[in-house]
Each structure stands twice: as structure tokens, then as C-alpha cells.
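Appendix B. Extra example for self-study. Work through it before the problem class; the solution is given directly after the inputs so you can check yourself.
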Amino acid sequence: MIDRARVTAQPVALLGPNPTLRMPVEAFDYVAPRSLAEAYAHLGNGRTSLLLAGGTDVIVQLREGRKRCDQLIDLKHIPELMRFGFAPDGTLEVGAAAPLAALYEDAEVLRRVPALVDAASIIGGTAIQSRASLGGNLCNASPAADSSAALMVLGARLLIGSASGTRELPVEELFAGPGVNTLQPSELLVQVRIPPQPPRSGAFYLRFIPRNEMDIAVASAGARLELNATGDRIEGARIALGAVGPTPLMAKAAAEALAGEVPGEEAFARAGELAAGVASPITDMRGSVAQRKRLASVLTVRALRGALQRAREAR
Amino acid sequence: MAATEHPSYKVIGTRPVRPDGVEKVTGKAQYGADVRLPGMIHGKILRSPHAHARVLSIDTSEAEKVPGVMAVVTRADFPVAEDVVQDLGEGAVSVKELSDNVLASDKVLYRGHAVAAVAATSPHIAEEAAGRIRVEYAVLPPVLAVRDAMREDAPLLDEQRVTKEMGGQGSGRPSNVASHLRFAGGDVEAAFAAADEVVEREFTTKMVHQGYIEPQNSTASWNADGTLTIWTSTQGAFVVRSQVAEVLRLPVSQIRVIPMEIGGGFGGKIPIYLDPVAALLSKKSGRPVKIVMSRTDVFEATGPTSGSYIRMKMARKDDRITAVQATLAYEAGAYPGSAVGAGAMTMLSPYNIENFVIDAYDVCVNKPKTSAYRAPGAPAAAFATEQMIDELAKNAKLDPLELRLKNSAHEGTRMVNGAVFPRIGAEETVRAALTSPHYRSPIEGPNRGRGVASGFWFNAGLQSSVVASANSDGTVNLIEGSTDIGGTRASLAMQLAETLGLPFEAVRPTVADTDSISYNDVTGGSRVTFASGLAVYEAGQELRKEMVRRAAKLLGVDEAELVYEDGGVQSTRDATKRLRFSEIAAKAGQTGGPIAGKGAVQARGVGAAFGTHVVDVEVDPETGKVQILRYTAVQDVGTAVHPSYVEGQIQGGVAQGVGWALNEEYYYDESGRLLNASYLDYRMPTALDLPLIETVLVEVPNPGHPYGVRGVGEVPIVPPLAAVANAIAEATGHRFRDLPISPRRIMEETQGLA
Amino acid sequence: MARTYVQATINGVATDFLCEPRQSLLEVLRDELGLTGTKEGCNNGNCGACSVLLNGRLVNACCVLGVEIDGAEVTTIEGIGNPDRLHPLQQAFLEEAALQCGVCTPGFIVSAKALLDKEPHPDEQRVRYWLAGNLCRCTGYDKIVRAVLKAADDMEPARQ
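Solution. C-alpha cells for the complete assembly:
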């Protein structure tokens, strides 16, 4: 039978382009400031700006109509944004636009902050890593961004600059929701600062993807463990989860429960359960709620194992 | 490795560098999107955001005002399409439905359905202008899954459609079920009653895409004399010509289609999408117009293969499969024409099963119109059959390959459609799998499992023609009309070289346009090396005869005493009287003019293809992730003309099958929006997801071809779905009957996740 | 539409062109400069068909803007070997039958060259990891991986 009621559904008049269709890339201007001061001046000129670091997200977003701008500000000609290195106090200072490949190819970075390399070396394929930056990966504010959870357990802080000065904030305070960060339109991320890691500590990051490369995390976890002097107790821990909430999440209760415990499967399993408790994921083409909650637990345990091994190697 | 010896061929069986290779590794080869013509402008297509809606009005006035816009086309610019059915490629097509799919008329039937098009001086301007076209829709509820679409209260895609019943009366009620076929033989009820064991199961698969790397493209020039030239990447230039001729109601003689290099097709580049639109934009603008699809367009709006539902009941008595009852329902997409018939006809073909009833339903849903995909219809059907056999073997404590061997089809076995097999290699592939180093090796370690499965594909013959012309330097120009999608210039040139006794390098193959060679069917059905090979052989024979005639003149002897052998003409009476091919060719002008041979065939003697695959997997019990540890594909290839490209076809089919088994699927939301229309989320296997793929080439020569050639391209995608599922069943203790067997599915099943 | 003047070295040749800021390097190479060996497969960095070298580093040309390459060096497939003197990778792809349709081939060769320039002796797993950003739908990667490993071997005498 023909269901007449359905066939004669009400017409929906659409004025202008349909919002569900991808919009074409509209024309924009390109500026390439040579200094931070010049960049801040562009940010303050009243036009809608987007920042271009590696471009592997923003160029695609512009092309697919997911973002638009009057001007695209290329940050790659600002020397301090492209540099990275260890400060005298041991802080790893990474210019926000420095390419990931340069970072993870650095032997000193690999030796001193391997958890950062865990994340930096799996964002996209090799061609993406030649361009993509920590700053872009963070500011894009994807809940699944690989660098976020790794930097959160490393205690990274962000140096934010604008025409009126600079400020610092913990990396976890950058994220406001899927694709939304807490920066003001006048601000830009200048530097990611990873403090020297505690003695007898190790950190590890991993994600779960259905393929072996080129996927967005279905879920991810980072962990850092600090051991006591004898190595038989956990002194402190940090755990962060990706892709299981609107932003990357710190799993505080799970981390706190590890303090004072014997490092090993029993404690890790409990931490895994607690970590899953903070997960508030969605179901989409990449995974389901139940799957992601379970993965949060599994990956937490695996991240803790990796962190423990590194902590022991550090002793 | 080759499991059998073939006759002492000189060229066939060697591995020369393909004639088009250098152009392709240096980036010089011209693919469809590489076409650049003087004055050329760019077209973009506006597509439906709705999966199901009536088109009430289209207002293009704002788009026309955009500076740089040179033409806008809607369905109103098309000739009125006749509701007639024509054979335009792989099977019959309604011209009305073909036209409606190219550009929607009264209804849009899937998200991404083309509605209007703009041509402008740059692709960006065309895209902006397309966004300014105002379309008024009356949105209708979509129906997306095959079983939902079969319900009596389902939204109807076409209110005029009634089910075509093969040899019977349908209900006459409007339905999304476009057709119902039945194949039956023997007495299933008696066989079920007498069986030792009967198992009944349900299987589902999701819509998946061929995934060729090159998006569809077309460049058209409506010439001043009223003729139309089209440059495009297609599996069949002549089929593009006939489809465009029907849609635009032009005589085929006014259309010239120039096939560019093609970046993959797997069946997906047989239908037309862009060509008539580019042609009309060119007619209106007076400029050549190029349209290239985006990757999202490719996923949303070209032809993937069907999602399916299969219910199957299978009986075993001792070590014989005695009966099968099966129901198959395949998603056709927006218009009828799924490969469910092929699924039904192939699903039991590796076996000799006496009693069967198979019902097959072709069902329309609000998703893109499906098209062929490598052995169309067969993989989903084999996914069901080969898991059933595996389960019966395990239950009876029989080796799954031994059970297959016991029930294997052979010469004289009748298929469900009544056709009787000539000499085939079904048993041989199972035997070779049984004795393969892979199958004989132990599989050890936790969470690991080994699976096997067999598969069958008919292969096609159809029409091919070639012209071979001798050059004065002793080389031969081979003009063919089959687009070369993966090495057929080489496999055809090798057959001509073999026929003429010349070195491979002496044959120069060229793929010609539709004005330059007579008709050729599509590059599809694994038919080119076989059927165009027959045409090549015929042309070679003609050249040989002509060479003998010319040599007789040059040598001053009677033709009857001459024979063609070893690349020249030889007297049977006087060993010193011999002329090489090149010597005769050089003097063609003195002996009667140019020397050419032609071959034009309606190919008979198609050799069917069988394969048996063995795969080892490891499943992560916590995350459900599957790693392919080892893969061996055994296939009867008839004669491996160029073994490297035969292996390559098999390895490629395996990779696609593994992707289909594990991660690939069209993932829709309830409104009919495809949520993973990108390579990021469609998840085809990468280099890191597969091991080296071992191949075992079994050569059971096809008696229907002078060199024993069988098509090899399609059957390798048939076994992997079930082989992987069978391996996962071994590794996890759980049977997975719904594809894809993604980590999510495995976690849900093995860990009881909701 | 405002167009920007850009100067760059492309395949060793000083080149200049005008482009709109919204045009990608891929569009510039193909539409403005006629270098059509670099292919578009997905236009969002997920298939590697547009792989080129930018200042010696492997990038997807679809994820770079044309205006960004001012002053830079770009190498495309057209800058790697030529029909008379093929790069060992090109020769190995031919001999190993590492291509079928060939549309992904330029990207694979550029990507593999970037690897071998950096690491002359990768093992199979390393080659697979490096090439994971290049999709091929025809070959199942078997012969591609073999060709890259063979090219690495073939290049060895040249280095000594």
C-alpha cells in the first residue's frame, strides 16, 4: 500500500544554500607575518582570522566548508614558533608551529620525553607529520587529538600570546568542546612547555584504531607513573583519556587511587575501571559508547604498563 | 609459483616490463583528470542533501549571475528519457533510470543524487555558483536497509514499481522489491529429512565501495559540427558512447569517446555519471568542460556494491552436502539492478549439490545505485555458504578442506542455473591448498586461528576486436579497444607475440578511441586477457597467413610449400628458403601493400575461475582488533600469461576482500546521510594492515582458448570474507555472520557489550 | 579574484606563478603548471596520491597552499628520473610489477624516495609503516613493498 500521508509530506522551502551541503571554499587572503608582533597586529585588524601552522587540518576544513575566514595567518615564518629545544631548567619548549617530524626525529626529545614521541609519531602518516604541529593538533581541539592526552599526563603548559602580553595555562584548560578551544580571537598559542619530568617517572601514550595507521583514535590513553626510591610503590600518577568525551579528560580518581600502591596488574586493573568511569563517549562511525568505555579501561592499563616500564628504565 | 607445467611457450609465462610502464612510473601517463584543452572550463554538480525527496523546483538564477559562470544545466535541459531497457554494458539498463541517476528529475533517491550543474572559468567559481542554486524539496522518509525496504509499509522509492516475478505472477502491489528470481533442483525437503545434520543461519553484509583511487571524471567538447567528443576514465569507451547516446538521444556515430588512462574501476567505472552533464554544459557554454568528482561524491554518488541479507539452510549426510535452501536479498540502491542473481548462481558453484532452492530478491533502497564490484554478488553469497560449510565440517570433526574436496564441482557438474561445467580447476585449488606449506604448517599461540574458504566466478566473454599491423621495421602495432586497467596491454601483446613467434618488445599495443576500432565491450568480467586475447589470436593467425602469401611472392615458390614458424616463413622443401617476419614486413610495398590482420570475436569458451584461500589471524581479546598473520591464495588461472600481473590481481582481490571482511562499510545515520564518506573513516587496508600475500597459481588450461587463458581478476575477492570469518571463529570461538567483523563487533560479541 | 605572485624552485627549475590563496599546491601543480603526474585521490590528506617533497620533506600537496611555497623547493614525480634514466625505484616498480592501474604510483614513488633518502636500508615493516599514508587499491601492496626493498638493494652499489 502507498502511504499517502508520507508521500505528501510538507514541502521544505530552502532559501539559499542548503546547510547540510558542504560549502565551497570561499576566497580568503593569506598573510605571512615575520614576527609575533606582526601576527598580533593581523589578529587585531577586525577581520575574521584563522591561523595556519602545518595546515593539515585547517586547509581541509576550509576546503570542506567546515571553517571560513577573511584572512589566513601563516605562522611558519615566525622564528620562535618554529623552534624547539630544552631550556636550562630542563623544560622542553616547543614552538607551536614546529612540524611533528622534526620533533620526533630529535634524539634528545626521544630520550627525554618518549611519551611525546608516542603521540607525535602517529598523527596522520609520514606526509602529514612533515607539516602538522603540536599547536595545530591542540588548537584544533579534537577530543581524539593524539598530542592532547600525552601532553596532559606530561603536565605541559601552554604559552599564549597576544598584543597585550602573554599568559600560561595547563594544556587541559585549552579545550572547551569538540573543535572549540578557550583562546580569545586576539590570542595565539606560542609555545608548548613540557616541564622536566619527576625522577623515577615514566610516561606512555597509546590509542586504539581499527587499522594500524591513518585512523582517528576510537579511544586513547596516556599515563605517567612516579615510583618511590626503591621502585616498589607508586608515588604519583597522571592519567588522561582521549576520544571518550567532548574534550580530552583527566582521570583524576584513577590516578589518585594508584598513589601508594604496588605497581602492577592489580593496581592497574583498578585504575582502568576507575578511568572508564569518567568516560562519557558517543556512538559514531568510529566506535560505540560501550566499546569506548571498555577501551578506556583497556588502554589505561596498557598505558600504565608502558609507563611503568619507562619509569623502571629511568631508575 | 606454478603448480603445473604449461606447453613450451616462448613469451606467455614470462614477466616482461609492461609497455605502458615507463609512462606510469614517471607521471607522464594521462589519466582522465589530466586532460587540458584550449578554452576548457570546469563543471561542478549540485547534489541532494536528502536521501529521499520530491524536487519541487530548481531556481538557477542566482548561480547564473556569478561572474565567471558560463552555463547551468538541470534535468530540463535533457531530452525526455524513454522508459526503454537497453543492454548498455554489464546487463540491461532502463534509459529513464539511467538518465534519472545522472541528473534527478522529479525525485531524489539518495543523498548525493545529482540535481544541477554549473560550468565556470574555475572550479572554485563553479562550486560557489552551484551553492547558489535554490532547490525546493518535499522531504520524504528514507528507507535504508534491505529488510526494511521489503516491508509492506515501507516508504516507496517508485510508486509505479511492482515486483517482477520470474515465471510467475506477483502480487501486483507497489513494492521496493524490483524482482524475484528462483533457482531450484532436486528435492530439498527429502534431503533435509534424510540428513545427519541441518544448520540454518542468517548473514548480513553492508554496502561497500570499490575504492579505486582515481575519482570519476569527464571532459566533453560539443563541437561546432554537432559532434561530441568525450575524454574520460572508463572501463568501456564504447559503453560510455552507447549510454551517452541513449541519454542525450544522439546517434552513436556523432559521439567519439577517448578513453584516458584509468585509475582503477573494479566494476565501478562502467556506468556513466558525469559525461552527459559535461556534454550539455559544453553545448551551452561553447567550451570544453571538465568535471571531476570529489572523493565524497565518489562515496555518496557512484555505485558501490549491495548490502545484503542471506538466510541459508544446509544439510550434511556423511561427508556430503546434500541440500541447500537459501534466500538472498540485496540492496540495489536507488534503482533496480543489484547482482543478487549472480550471488544466487555462484554461491554453490564450487560444489556438486543435488538439492537446492534459492530465492533472490533485488530491492531498492535510498542509497546510491549499486554497480558492479569485482565478481559482483558473489562475495556476500560465499560469505554465507563458506561459513556454513565450515561450521558443518567442524561439527562433524572433518577437515574443512577435505569436506570441500569431497563435495567439489568438476567437469560435468551442473550449476544451479543449469549450465554444465567444462574442464575446471575447482578440485585442484582445494588440493593445492591442502598441500600448501601454509596449510601444512602448524598454527600456534593464543587467540590465533586459521580459516579457509573457496570461491567461484563465471568470467565473461562478450565482444572484442583488434587490428594488428606490421610495420616495415618488423614490429607490429596492436590496436585494441579494451581499456587497460591493470596490465592488459602487456597480456594481449604477449599473446600476439606468442602467435607470431616474435619477441614481446616487437608488439606495440595501443588502446584506441571509439572512432578508431570496432566495438569492444567493457574491461570487466575478467574478460580482456581471455576475450580480447581471442581476437588477438585471430588477428595473429590472419597475419601469419598473409605473411605466407607475401613470402611466396618474395621467394617465388608456391604458398603450399610454406609454413609460418618461429617468427618467419619457412619452406618445407628447402631449409635455406626462409624469410623472417621483419624481412617480409619490410618489403610489403613490393608484395601487395600494407600487411594487417584483424580479429573480431563474440567470445565463446569462457573458462570459469575457482580459488581457495587460507588465512591465519590473531585477535586481540581485549580490543577485538584482528591482525592478518599469513595469507595464501590458491587459484586456477588457466594459463598465467604474465604471472606477475596474475599474482597482482590475486593479491589485490585478497586485499579488497580483507578490507570488506574487517572494516569497510557504508555507515549511515537514520536520515540517510553517509557518515564516513572519506578515506579517513571508510578504512581501506593500508600497507601496514596486510602481510605479503602468497599466491599459488594452479594452471588448468581453459579448453576454450588457444593458450588456455581463464580470467583471473575477479574470483580472488570471493573467498576472503568467509576465510577471514572462519579464522576469527577459530581464534575466538565466536561465529561472526554480520560484516564487517570490526573490533566493535568483536568486542560486542565476545565481551557481551551492548 | 586577487592572485598572489609566488616564486619557487620546482624540480630544480626556477618557477613563478600567480595563484589564489585558496588554491592548494596540488591545484597549482596540476592546473597552473601542468605537472599532472601528482594525482588527486581524496583532497584531504588520506591517500597520498599527491605526495611531493617540500624542502626535502614528504608532504601531501593537497594539504599545502600554493602561496605557502614562495621561496621553497618542490620535487614532484616529474623531477624523479626520466624515461632515459629511471630512478632505481621506478625501475624496481616496473620489474616487480608493482603497479596495476598506476594512478597511485607517482605518490608511492615520491614517498618511497623520501624514505630511502633518509633510511637506505628499511626493513619490510618499516617500509609498510612509512607507506601507510599512500593508499593502493589494486595491488594489495605486496609487490610495492617488494619493489621498494629491491630498489634499496639496487641503490647500494651506487652509494659505495
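Self-check: The mean pLDDT of chain A is 92. If your reasoning did not lead you there, revisit section 3.
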